[in-house]
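Handout, page 2. Input:
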Amino acid sequence: MTDRDPFAEGERAARDNIPAEANPYHDGSDEHALWAAGYEKVAGGIEAGESEGS
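Output:
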């Protein structure tokens, strides 16, 4: 059995251009919050990089 890391899964989803609405965890759960935090960490960095190039 592998331990899932919701934060890392959220980071991976953002890198793979998966929409934030695809968060697989129950809204309001700790896992949902961790997934969203990981997603925002990567998505925020991607957006900052895109704005620097414009």
